[in-house]
Amino acid sequence: MRRVVITGMGVFAASGKEAESFFASLVNGRSGIGRISLFDPSALSVQIAAEVPAYTPTDYFPAKRLELLDRFSQFALIAAREAMQASGLAVREEERPRFGVVVGSGMGGAQTLDQGYLNLYAKGATRLHPFTIPKMMHNAPASQISMEYGAQGPSLATSTACSSSGHAIGEAFHLIKFGLADMMLAGGSDAPITYGMLRSWESVRVLASGNGDPSRACRPFSADREGLVMGEGAGILLLEELEHARQRGATIYAEVAGYGLTSDASHITQPSVDGPARAIRMALDEGGTNPEEVDYINAHGTGTKLNDVTETQVIKEAFKEHARRLAISSTKSMHGHVMGATGAVELVATVMALQRGIIPPTANYNCPDPECDLDYVPNQAREKPLRTAISNSFAFGGLNAVLLVRRF
Amino acid sequence: MASDEQESSSRAENNFAAGVTQLNAKRGVEKSVAENNIGEKVIEIITREQHLEPGVVKPESSFAELGIDSLDAVNILFALEEEFKIDIPDTIAQNMKSVSQAVDGLTRVTEGRDISDLVAMAKRETTPATS
Q: Is B90 within 8 Å of chain A by CB?
């Protein structure tokens, strides 16, 4: 059986613009959530988000390149760059067809789309810029990354809302495991902080407004939780077939051991218990792992009333008594809900937790909720040797992705 | 037959182009002056959009020489349309593959602003005399 390991990781998000500072920020309980600065949010009822701080595109790309890159493609390329540099991978010409890319996004080129609509409907433009399509298409990051690194293997873009990058990494894992590739860059990217997106989300009434204190707005599992906080960013991991990694003396971060994916077939926004629990079991089964071997769950943990109580029930359903012994935390409490990138961003956090034996906390855990009565590693990071962890993504529309990773 | 359609469509284009030239002549446009101004603008816009050094784009440059691919070309067309506040129809755009062709195409469109008569002329030329 072919085994798949992680040999490089990149992250670009509110909590950090590369993996080390990102993880340090999480472990120190620092919030990346603040007042929206990308546009004037004064007219909105929710004025906060988890933006990438102090980002100047020309620090990372020449001006001409930027003309074809929406913000979400920029983030993806930056994270891919970090992953490739960390991995030390030099792909030989003849290996290119064995090197693919799966990068997901929930919202695609939101900034490009927003600008296009503004021009068309508000300014009466009769033509839109010819780069609108190549910039906004959901597959732009996957294509741009494949072009950047000469990846000629199996590549695609996944779009399953909040599970987009969980699915992307799982599909990449399977492509290697089942022999179609030896190297895959996988993850997700989203840059959804636009006026149009905020107005759309506002009406769903699941956003936390923060009441003037943005850093304390996102409170997963806490009784006083008020909803999710939108974030932007990208997470990209390099997955590699184990022997291929060994032969080139790669540093191995962790093993990807299982991938569960299921559909709730229930409600277009409300999660079920059965769908996510089956996804967890599926990931465990593939990894030949008993539930009792799981030490840590990086939860979907959005901070909405509904997700957090449902996810608690899911964990109990999947783990029975062991649910009370394992540690759970939601890093969305600090980096926000990075939408299509969140699965990948959280997997980076999970892998670093495994490597270092430090569990990042659930920030802003103010008061226990009797319906959420498990161990959520509240407020303080915890040192604990970890063997096996899972990362949950449960999307609107009931599409679930669970990844099982093991210390190598 | 496909080749008949191609023949008649290229005949239509030639008629269209001829019609524009006739209209230019009728309107007594000082061709060389108008073309010089358009020429300068075209060179300026290509230089800007392609991020080239000043002086690289010459009146005799072809797009291929300048490393302009088809995506770059539609970007330049967009910039020209915005600058001159015109629509460049595909039939003319397809023939704009060098600086001089771009100037030529733009001249035809900017100076033949009311081109409905030309389109009708082109259509009449392509309608078969017998069915």
A: no
